[in-house]
Amino acid sequence: MPGGASIAAMHCLTPAGVGVDALWEALCRGPVPGGPVEHFTTPRGAPHAGFVAALPGSPAAPGRLRALFAAALETVLSGVEDRGRVGLVLATTDMGGNAFAGDEGELEERYPGLLPRGLGEELGLGGPHVMVSTASASGGTAIGVALDLLRDEELDHVALAAADCITASATHGLDSLRTLSRDGCRPFSAERRGIGIAESSAALLLGGRGSGPRVCASASSNLTTHLAAPQAAGIADALATVLDEAALRPADVALVHVHGAGTRAGDSAEVAALERVFGDRLAALPLLSSKGTLGHLQGAAGLIGALASALCLTQRAKPPTWRSKPRDTAFAHLDLGGRALGEGHAVSLCSGLGGVNNATVLAA
Amino acid sequence: VSCSIAASVAGQLDTTAIWREAFGPREGWDSASAAAAALCKSIARRAAETLACDHADTVIASATGTAFTTEAMQHRLDNEGPVWLEPEQMLYQPSHVLAALAHLEGGVRGSAMTFLGPDAAGTAVRYAVRRLASGRAPAVLCGAYEIATPRTAQRLSSLELDPEHAHFCFHVLRADGRTDHTSALLESARSTQGGAGGPAVASMRALARELVA
Question: Which of A7, A123, A199, B38 could form a disulfide with A165, with the two C-beta atoms 3.0–4.6 Å apart?
Answer without folding.
Answer: A199
